[in-house]
């Protein structure tokens, strides 16, 4: 029985948070689907709120502190990724984007990814397709067709409420991720600690000076 590596990135700021809750539901469903395919799975959960200071230091110095480096190494060797962020001002959170900015440019190349997001109302659900999906496409990740958005009103929705109920969306996205992970032959990416940030430009256009 093969063992697949799943990395779960949660950008929730609260503790507990609906963002982490959605990430956990996607993780459980992905485990179940992989089990049906005959795969075991090891899961590494990355809580970005616990790495916020390290991420900032990495942005300022170009070097990842040890705790952040462990997370980056886990991502570079994963077979699949679940990425969930709260939606702030119609897009992913600044903490989530800052984490993406410090990963090695090829760390998620060919990586199977489920994107998820949480927010107060359904109005922000399109942020998954106009913000998160293009972000991972730029990084050459393989994003599954089904994205999962959970508004406040979605929590507690039963499976019998219709095909758009949250449990149905979670199961569908997890099934798509499991199928890609099952067929994954992705090798570990070697991370160069001296590599320039993915957004670096010699003209000085990377970030604020």
TrEMBL record:
Pfam families: FMN_red
Source organism: Subtercola vilae
Sequence ranges assigned to domain NADPH-dependent FMN reductase-like in this UniProt record: 5-155
Keywords: Flavoprotein, FMN, Oxidoreductase
Transmembrane segments: none
GO molecular function: oxidoreductase activity
Protein name, UniProt field: NADPH-dependent FMN reductase
InterPro entries, per the entry: CE1759_FMN_reduct, Flavoprotein-like_sf, FMN_Rdtase-like_dom, NAD(P)H-dep_FMN_reductase
Gene3D superfamilies named among the record's database cross-references: 3.40.50.360
Keyword Oxidoreductase: yes
Entry keyword annotation includes tRNA-binding: no
């Amino acid at each position: 029985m093969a063992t697949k590596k799943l990395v779960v990135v949660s950008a929730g700021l609260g503790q507990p948070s609906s963002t982490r809750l959605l990430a956990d539901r996607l993780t459980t469903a992905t485990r179940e689907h992989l089990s049906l395919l005959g795969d075991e799975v090891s899961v590494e959960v990355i809580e970005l709120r616990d790495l916020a200071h390290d991420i900032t230091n990495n942005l300022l110095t170009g070097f990842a502190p040890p705790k952040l480096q462990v997370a980056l190494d886990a991502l570079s060797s994963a077979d699949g990724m679940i990425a969930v962020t709260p939606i702030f001002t119609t897009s992913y959170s600044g903490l989530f984007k800052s984490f993406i900015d410090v990963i090695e440019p090829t760390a998620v190349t060919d990586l199977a990814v489920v994107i998820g997001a949480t927010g107060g109302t359904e109005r922000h659900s399109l942020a998954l397709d106009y913000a998160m999906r293009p972000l991972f496409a730029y990084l050459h990740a393989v994003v599954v067709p089904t994205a999962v958005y959970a508004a406040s009103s979605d929590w507690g929705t039963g499976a019998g409420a219709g095909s758009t109920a949250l449990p149905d969306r979670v199961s569908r996205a997890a099934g798509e991720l499991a199928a890609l992970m099952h067929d994954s032959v992705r090798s570990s990416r070697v991370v160069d600690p001296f590599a320039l940030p993915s957004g670096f430009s010699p003209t000085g256009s990377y970030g604020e000076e």
